[in-house]
Amino acid sequence: LTQAYLGQFDAALASFSAILENHSDFADIHHARGIVYAGLNRMQDARASFEQALKVNPYYKDALIKLSMLHCHLGDPRAAAACMREAGRIDPEDGSLQTTIAAVGDIMAGARDDASMRDELLHLFGGGRPVEQAIADFNKHLKIKPDLSTVLSIIKEFSREDTGLLEMLLPVVQDVVREHPGYPDTHNTLGAMYLKLNRLEPAEGCFREALRLNPDYLRARVNLFTLLKNMGNNAAAAAEGERILENNAEYPDIYFGMAEVLQKLGRSVDALAHIDRAIALRPRYTQAYFLRARLLVHCERHAEAAQAYEACLALNPGPEIENPAREALQALRQQH
After folding, report:
1. Is residue 97 within a helix (H) or strand (E), and if so which, with residue range?
2. DSSP letter string over 285-335?
3. What is residue 139's predicted lDDT score, i.e. its pLDDT?
4. pLDDT tens, 282-314?
5. 0.70 exceeded by the pTM?
6. Which of 38, 193, 207, 265 is deepest in the core (most CB within 10 A)?
7. Structural contact between residues 221 and 246, judged by C-beta atoms closer than 8 angstroms
């Protein structure tokens, strides 16, 4: 957005196109790309981008207004008028817009033909200056920084494979954290980004700050538990997991993660209790049956371990579980 505002259109277009390649359902990004295309004088592409923004969000007033100006510039004054009327229907309290729509109605009623209608609409939309200049200045009306809800909605869709996109948005979220240091949500979001980028130390700091601000912030505690478990800090992970589960939280993945942590701490009996709870909450949890079988082998409960492997295989797991489960079951049968 900052690139677009500053007129760095080629760089902004590359950034927006990269986001839309994997995340095509963000109306704001289509809208912003339309602004960039307009700045590059690629008016057909700009119109298509605004139309795509409206497919995602039919109530996008600003996209309708800009699309109206583009329709008029490209020679379709009737489509331009229709877009402007639709924008007014969405926001009837916008007095300036309603005045413009009334003027559009007068022009359409009095114009001799489409050519004269287009000329008069161009003068109206341009505000006394060439409408081409108004279109070229679309970018000057951008909010440089998106609001936090927009950032969150985009980031939560990114995976670890979206490293370049996460790196691009990281400074935006860092700025939000600096501006709103008392908001636990912002610290948790920044921590989640660091975690996806495998920057574990700053991620831990963000999650702990979110929890300092709000000790009951469950999502931040789950993120901290996951981070500590992945770092191999099993004692600290177990402490966080116990806090998550102490209120009888029904999270099978947390019970499973706790079983993994407790196994590494040598607490196989406690790990079995947690894995049994995970299976009770999610009866087709193939990874849990596989881990349960391994825990039972460690406890020398071989007959029960064989049954757990059989239950796991009966759920038709993927090859990453099926192959070692079959090998372990065969070895158990041979040995016992």
Report:
1. helix 95-110
2. -HHHHHHHHHHHHHTT-HHHHHHHHHHHHHT---HHHHHHHHHHHHHHHHH
3. 44
4. 999 999 999 999 999 989 999 999 999 999 999
5. no
6. 207
7. no
